[in-house]
Amino acid sequence: MSVELDEQFPIFLGSEIDQGHPQQAMFHVLPVPYEKTVSYGGGTNLGPSAILNASWQLEKWDGKSSPCDLGIHTCPPVDCSVAPEQVMENIASATANIIKNGGIPVILGGEHSVTYGVIQGLKAAGIDDFGIVQIDAHCDLRHAYEGDILSHASVMKRAVDMGIPLYQLGIRAYCEEEKQVREDFGVYYQDSDELVPNNINSITLPDDFPEKVFFTLDVDGMDPSVFPSTGTPVPGGLSWYQTLNLFESVAKQRQIIGFDIMEFAPIEGFHAYDFAASLLTYKLMGITARHRN
After folding, report:
1. Torsion angle, alpha carbons of 111, 190, 130, 52, to 10
2. Per-residue pLDDT at 223
């Protein structure tokens, strides 16, 4: 169930393009202004609107191509006013509909628990064999956090419990329980203390990693000097270009079937970060499109 588009949720890049037809647009932008389980700073529910509004300041040309030429359809925001289980069902339904229309879902969160609904939607649409690549400061592998299995701190545990292969990048804050989960479920990872000091800009996915990849990007995976606008900032994160390069290294090896931008919490009066989150979204569209075939 969704609500209609309104002035708070304009179409992505609407200053430059018309709304793409849902059956013809490559990218379907789905705003999910959901926040319930954040454990430090708040404001992630305001992220989707800020990103969409800032997108009106973008150029069509992303530096290498014009991904909007392939069509961008902005979906109505998901109804997040209901119980968490129903929110997840709403996200799943909207995601599955995007896949059935032949689009690539681009999910704008919201707290990271949103990704669980997206995963359910991918499976509901018939995509069973896929892996997840995650950029994040945190593992999000706790079975539950503060008693909630739908917590933002547990979203990747829900994924591995479903048998989905996982590769984590940029992690630098996790507990012993999550360390054990990594071992028990064979989670692949390259943490920030390896990636950042050595300026590693690409990874090689294991041979047995699925051909289809959903990429989830929590903005706190990037350094707070780039994105202080998140509820759980951790020093020592990825840089702007390192993040783009790591994403592209995955896109070169596998088919990106969708991606999300999670945990962006706008800071009032600091439009630079809204613009950065919007540009990041558009850059990832461009990388995905250029390596799609």
Report:
1. 40
2. 98
